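Reviewers of the previous submission asked for a worked example of the structure-prediction workflow described in the proposal, so we include one complete record here. The input consisted solely of the amino acid sequence. No template or homolog information was supplied to the procedure at any stage.
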Amino acid sequence: MRILKWLPRTGLKSILAWSTMRKTNLTLLREIEIPDFPTVIPVPLPSWKPVPVEDRQVELEGLIKPSKARNGSFQYVTISDLISAFRSGKTTPLEVVQRILDAMREFDAMNPPLLAITQCHREEVLKLAKASTERYAQGKSLSIFDGIPVAFKEEYSVVSYRRREGTTFMGDKPCDRDAVVVKKLRDGGAVIIGMTNMHEIGIGVTGSNVNRLHGTPRNPHNVHHYTGGSSSGSAAAVAAGLCVVGLGTDGGGSIRIPSSACGVVGVKATFNRITKAGLTDLSLSGSVGHAGPICNSVRDAAITYAYLAGPDPQDTMSLNQPVVSLQDFEQTNMDGVTIAVDWRFFEDTDKEVFGCCQEALRYLESRGATVVSIQIPELEEARVAHIVTILTEFATGMEPFYKKHYYDMNPDTVMSLSLGRMLTAFDYYQAQKQRTRMMQFLEDFFQEQKIDCIITPALGIKVPKIPSGAISHGEANTPQMSAMMRFMQLGNLTGVPCMTLPVGYDGNGLPISLQVMSGWWQEHKMLRVAHACENVLEKKQPQVYRDMLQ
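From that input alone, the workflow returned the following structure tokens.
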């Protein structure tokens, strides 16, 4: 890793970059003619005309339903459970937060430490929880998020916290203004418990971070395995019971990959359905990046999505969107629902992953869904187009830091940015033309063929084990990285909504998850299918977990 970090600063840079690009097939788009006009921002094409949904505001209060464990199996604490406990006086937000703070200290004192939370202002957290407790005592709660513990990836601006973005050199001053989604939750009374760990600048999928301010977080299901990345700490915090909502960002699976690895639920909505105003002010993954929630149930994910989604005057790209809907969410029978599977694509994964995901599909069929076979064209071209796009946008946004803080960055960060700097304007333009083609293909499936959802596995491999040397030096494993992203990239390139949920466990007790994808602005279909599929799994308690109600 140290040698690879040194090489880009030598005369061997061009040879190294060219070799890497050939091995990863990044020159593919240079070799083909793409006749389509480029799409730089993945907003729906003019030809996209979905069936209208109910034009009324989501009634969040009606979604509050305390969870019930199946046959005594493990059940996470949910938003509904907390609200019920707060309203009945069984416990208070202050008592819950005190348990969380105790658990946080306990988990980071373990060997190895969990390292899910990187910044926590204990007195401020207690102050927020105390204020929420007083509001419940007076019967004056602000929203259904009053008293709910939430945490934010270090890419979000949160007042009094530093937006470090997983680095040692960003966030030199505390933020003095909340990101829009942070303010929504704060104004609703949510208790912000802190900032979560992440892969440095979000340019990795394992969660590995070797710098002195962060360290590599551990998977609550097995601390010797990765959490996935880049929203690694948010997923680990939710899985370990430190919060019920963790906000992340997703440019190439960075919400869905760690959610899948940690056995929780991750949502990447339609591009800019949830505003990114107040996240990183760099142009990092600008046309593929999304903000979204990580929760421990589909219901909680639906509640959080509906609460945060919608137009934002500060974010012009979020303004032209239809009403946010959870239409038919409670209908867990799948009669009339058509699910598509590209079996050639679906099978390109580990055998255990394939088996669990195939069983989940059978379960949906038993609930009445119609499963049809499709073939998604040009998947390799789409993969390359996504990598070209995200690396170019990262390299451009990080240009000032690359020059000034080259030796402060982790080796894998340097390698990715160096590769991005070698891509050309031609590469980027070709990638945007390929984006148009993929959007047209998906539009045909969802609109012309009337498919409701496309389903794939979440990860192309089982959750990787952390090599011993990676804790101190990091890891550069391109085949592993590619396999973890395999099913994620299409959603980021085209901007369609996708989400992941756990459907099984491998032989090491690590979660296996499924991905559900729907058409632009059709999150209600995706959430309905995921909600129905959730009952396929009898959940197991993670090795590292604290029940915040106990």
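DSSP finds 19 helices and eleven strands in the chain. We consider this example representative of the routine output the project will generate in years two and three.
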